[in-house]
Amino acid sequence: MGMNNNRVEHFDCHDQQQFQTIIKIQQQQQQLDIAMEIHKVELPPQRTTLHKLQQRLSEIFFPDDPFYRFKNQSCFMKFILGLQYLFPIFQWGPQYNFHLLRSDAISGLTIASLAIPQGISYAKLANLPPIVGLYSSFVPPLIYSLLGSSKHLGVGPVSIASLVMGSMLSETVSFTQEPILYLKLAFTATFFAGVFQASLGLLRLGFVIDFLSKATLVGFMAGAAVIVSLQQLKGLLGIVHFTTKMQIVPVLISVFKQRDESLKKPKLFWVSAAAPLTSVIVSTILVFLLRNKTHKIAIIGNLPKGLNPPSSNMLYFNGPFLALAIKTGLVTGILSLTEGIAVGRTFAALKNYQVDGNKEMMAIGLMNIAGSCSSCYVTTGSFSRSAVNYNAGAQTTVSNIIMAAAVLVTLLFLMPLFHYTPNVVLAAIIITAVIGLIDYQAAFKLLKVDKLDFLACLCSFFGVLFISVPVGLGIAVAISVFKILLHVTRPNILVLGNIPGTQIFHNVNQYKEASRVPSFLILGVESPIYFANSTYLQERILRWVREEEERVKANNGSSLKCIILDMTAVTAIDTSGLDTLCELRKMLEKKLLKLVLANPVGNVIEKLHQSKNLDELGLKGIYLTVGEAVADISSSWKAQP
Amino acid sequence: MGMNNNRVEHFDCHDQQQFQTIIKIQQQQQQLDIAMEIHKVELPPQRTTLHKLQQRLSEIFFPDDPFYRFKNQSCFMKFILGLQYLFPIFQWGPQYNFHLLRSDAISGLTIASLAIPQGISYAKLANLPPIVGLYSSFVPPLIYSLLGSSKHLGVGPVSIASLVMGSMLSETVSFTQEPILYLKLAFTATFFAGVFQASLGLLRLGFVIDFLSKATLVGFMAGAAVIVSLQQLKGLLGIVHFTTKMQIVPVLISVFKQRDESLKKPKLFWVSAAAPLTSVIVSTILVFLLRNKTHKIAIIGNLPKGLNPPSSNMLYFNGPFLALAIKTGLVTGILSLTEGIAVGRTFAALKNYQVDGNKEMMAIGLMNIAGSCSSCYVTTGSFSRSAVNYNAGAQTTVSNIIMAAAVLVTLLFLMPLFHYTPNVVLAAIIITAVIGLIDYQAAFKLLKVDKLDFLACLCSFFGVLFISVPVGLGIAVAISVFKILLHVTRPNILVLGNIPGTQIFHNVNQYKEASRVPSFLILGVESPIYFANSTYLQERILRWVREEEERVKANNGSSLKCIILDMTAVTAIDTSGLDTLCELRKMLEKKLLKLVLANPVGNVIEKLHQSKNLDELGLKGIYLTVGEAVADISSSWKAQP
């Protein structure tokens, strides 16, 4: 099998083992006439460029095949299905009944009790008047309930988007000095966030949010949480002489700590749901009763009664701060979208239904556009609200309508009650909310499983903490992208060996029983061959060849004659890659070494064919499997010794 | 085999075929007791984090293992080898002889005849005084001949870096109005280009130049060539009344056209090498003879005699234009580096020796730093010079020393001869040089082989043409990176089928004889599973399952029971990917479908193990090959019908 008998006698122990391996393969092949037959590597069926482009684009933009429901349907049904597609309420509306309503009413009221104090607090986090937080818990949930496809998403302002908006706008404009301009910018940013979100959905570019990996978000949110907590602590520490009230912080913390576990302990969910409202009520009553003795405590003060005033006249489309508004809109838009989609998917997975990412983006985008015209700021699906909603037994988005109704009642009649609510309790609510964003367990898991992911997490944490929110976010995305590029730029190359008694070839490092086949060097390239790695691969493969030659020499083994590249994991190749293969073949030929390819996938063999590289390699140079390559080449050596 | 006998009778034709396939596999497995044995999937050997990090870093920064020569050597030999490593001249110096010198002298004088007119022209292209071009052909080649590892690289100013420097600096500073500032900025940009190049080499970050793919460079250079030609045409058209001289343009073009073919026709190389000098001499003599009648023709004018004056005092390290100088330095630095390394590698491959990329970067960087202190602007290995050098028979970098000596003689004694050289001939030399950069054949090949590469090429062409040089370059790199990301974000998923009579499973689209195995859906994922594609993969796999169920239903086939993911091409996985696999398994379990993995590679199985996903899947859920998975699961169904 490619070596003379008289040479076999000189083999040392190591090589005899290898020789036995090859004999075994040979015997097995003789037993198995079927497997010995060499299979031709086929080109995939010819497709036109247009067809290929169409297929590629549909894979990029319509991977979920959103129109499959419309196939083979009558015109009327298509209309109905289209209506249901645009407004999911028509899908579940007809089956809606009293039983569902009861569940939704309970959960709706429950999330309202969370939404009201959260709305007020988060608006403060964004440096906005507290009432804007309540407005934002009224219009957007109504719009979402018409358009959204998630059944459990609780819609409203969220901490992360609020704090990002607050910190980005406050860098340039001070709310205390220019409240009207600040408000205008906030609504304008919300408008652009909505436009950005809706157009991502409309253009089916939803995958851009996938680039905010979980690892970077963990770091980002923890960093943001630390910033906000420090900001709010100032407010808390400003009232140290009011000792009794300080107790509420550890109490709240201990209550809220259970929030994260609420998914697992549904019985306790009402604690986390009711705690903010309870503390607001208790503290408001306390301050009201002691109002003569506690005039040093900052309170919310007068809140205007009444519904959301229109704010479309406050949108700001030209002027020196337009760029700031757009930038803030983009950053808060993408962050809130990421949270909304992730939360929607989480609860959909729990109940085993699917959420259409692109449609959700449109729903969230439209609700923000509508919100920006009705005095609301950026809203999305909130994790805390959705968890409470889910645990309170929500069945459809009607729970959002119920919540909006409860907020409506509050706006119309109950606003004076919040006059004496102390700011400190809002600070406490904010701190407990954002401290929940610090997911050290996730960070620990990252450290254990994937060091590079942990590095991305750390970098985004410190980037947000020490530089700024958009820069931190930018760093986080850059690291994630860099990680992908690094994998492509420096791909693994494995040395494959035969697992005795089989036709299976595997990494000799991973499988100790896998043994190298004498005279062959079988390399598995674990990446597409691109411009970004073609030079590296060429030099690295030549280094493998050099090292193998040295190893063989040191062991007095049979000299290297053939290099087999296992192309199974080479999922794509570009023009630089094709040139590299050509170059490599020529360089190896000068060393009297043969280069063959095993198992190129469809589009790689297509490109090899188009670029005429195939002609140079010859059809003989490409095999279906490594096993067939070894068998065929060994037997050809035997035939011509 | 997973289906009851009484059901077999109801199979239609299509399914009987499939059934026969499975029977065949079964028979074959029975024949082959060896192959039937199920192999355990093994974890790669345990390594510490430090060891893994070390290995990873050495793969990133030292893929060429530059220290392998030093292994097992005495201290003295290590010193000698180190000296040879730093100054390759010590490597070939001792063997240098008269025979080599003769070859080098001939080729050195030949490239000098090209270098002198090129130097003058390219300096004009960078809006610099012509004499700077000659200075740049003197010091840098001397430095390179000490440090460089390529034997054939002809060093000097190149068109692409010259025109980029000219266009970037001229946007802000005009040479005619502020010649001293312009000169200062040019030297400073050269200094930063050198620092950037040398540090890329020193930090072993050479791979960043790989991100300028050939496709984008083809487009970039063509765009740049068009810009320069249009600029220079102004100069040419300004002298239309001087008709006799115009003839030189088509002549030069026709002469230069052969330049690209010079590699293939060594006999003709002297035409291209001598043409520029000849035209300069002829035109200079003509203008000199007709000097009284042709005072309207712009001529070079007085050039100072003498060697490079020191220019380290002209480096500009603070002031309003520092950022411009740094930016220009980075862009010209990376462009000239790309050209230099690519040219070095091309000729090394022709003569079958290796060029060390990182060391070349240091050599080119140091020669530019030295150049910036001796009145030179950015230089690198030039394609035209190197081709002429190679064809003229250069053996070592001594040819660069000979060229520098010839330039030295020119600088010291011959400068007055260039007084009457008309600018128009320099414009013609520039145009012919840059027109050679338009490689329409390469663009056509891109169009044929890889549409996305062609798009990148087009975009960089139009970006440079209509926006600006750095923006065009940025677009080009962004598209190349986007292409990689797109491949990762939307990876292929293949449906695999069995090739009858074998254990081989292949894409059913590519191999018509491959047939699906009833009750199984075998999917090959062709990409690492990352945050950027984990959502897509999850939804796409669920769509495949849905479509397979519909297909099976339409054909009355045996119902789907098991999904096998072939992980051969999944070369890496991150924490998001691990979560996705878990999620997917749970979702499929709710549909009573089994999910197993086949052939996970080393680091994937390691991560599965670390994240405890492996425990959930169970060792039973992972197989070494698809064939073993099918065989084992089918027989388990048979055992428990």
From TrEMBL, chains A, B:
GO molecular function, one term: secondary active sulfate transmembrane transporter activity
Family annotation (InterPro entries): S04_transporter_CS (IPR018045), SLC26A/SulP_dom (IPR011547), SLC26A/SulP_fam (IPR001902), STAS_dom (IPR002645), STAS_dom_sf (IPR036513)
STAS domain: residues covered: 510-633
Membrane-related topology note: Multi-pass membrane protein
Keywords, sorted A to Z: Membrane, Transmembrane, Transmembrane helix, Transport
Cellular compartments per GO CC: membrane
CDD domains for this protein: STAS_SulP_like_sulfate_transporter
Location(s), subcellular: Membrane
Chief location of this protein within or outside the cell: membrane
Entry's transmembrane regions: 181-205, 211-230, 237-256, 268-290, 398-418, 424-442, 454-482
Pfam families xref list: STAS, Sulfate_transp
SUPFAM superfamilies per UniProt: SpoIIaa-like
Gene3D superfamilies, per the entry: STAS domain
Family: Belongs to the SLC26A/SulP transporter (TC 2.A.53) family.
Name this polypeptide is given: STAS domain-containing protein
Organism this protein belongs to: Lupinus angustifolius (Narrow-leaved blue lupine)
